[in-house]
Design brief:
The chain is of the alpha+beta class. The chain is built from 5 helices and 3 strands, in the order βββααααα. A hairpin with a 2-residue loop joins strand 1 and strand 2.
Length: 106
């Protein structure tokens, strides 16, 4: 069941069901209730996909390269390192990536 709390004039919705914990903040209480019910239905039907499952490490590394790397002095060396990681682990979703995996790969 969705839990709705009023915080700082906004409504925070938390949905906890089947080891899934998601939350979001809304300005309107009606929108908060609607979103909470929608998420509960998605979880029950098995159609809920978390952000961690839908985003890959390769996507994040590519975005970091485009937004941050271009501003660094040593961008060529860093780009090489990021490319190596992306080739090895780029297809993994974020929910499967942890520090132990990165240490073994690097």
């Amino acid at each position: 069941m969705a839990t709705i709390r009023k915080r700082c004039g906004k409504y925070q919705v938390q949905v906890r069901k089947d080891a899934t914990n998601i939350s979001r903040t809304f300005i309107n209480k009606v929108d908060a209730i609607k979103w909470g019910k929608e998420q509960e239905v998605k979880i029950e039907q098995g159609s809920y996909v978390s952000r961690k499952e839908s985003v890959t490490l390769g996507f994040l590394l590519n975005r970091w390269e485009q937004e941050v790397l271009i501003h660094l002095k040593s961008w060529k060396a860093e780009r090489y390192k990021v490319g190596m990681i992306a080739r090895e682990l780029g297809n993994l979703s974020l929910d499967r990536v942890n520090s132990a995996l990165l240490v073994v790969t690097i």
